[in-house]
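Quarterly update from the structural biology core.
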Amino acid sequence: MNEDERAIRDLVRNWMESTKAGDIAAVLELMTDDILFLVPGAEPFGKQEFAAGAAGMKEMRFEGSCEVVEIEILGDRAWIRNRIEVTMTPAGGTPVHRAGYTLGILRKEGGRWRLARDANLVTAR
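Predicted structure, tokenized:
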């Protein structure tokens, strides 16, 4: 495994750990300013909308895992396919389990890999 692949795998691990810890500021640092998220049933949205949505989930507990299935590095760009399983439990509420795949496009900026596009196909199971 080369240095770029290790850095991308670290980004995925940091994203999951920061999400579990509720550290949204750390998650926001892992994405480009012009990121676009693509999810079923919604218009593409960016970093500001992600942050607003995350702020509304402060009382949510997250548990889960992410397996890197593929990484392809092409200079200062890369794509990655992940399999994600997550359980989200609202305070005093019923847990919701979601699982599926994501496809991300990453860009290396200032020596750091960051997520620039994310197609999330994770659904309730």
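The radius of gyration is 14 Å.
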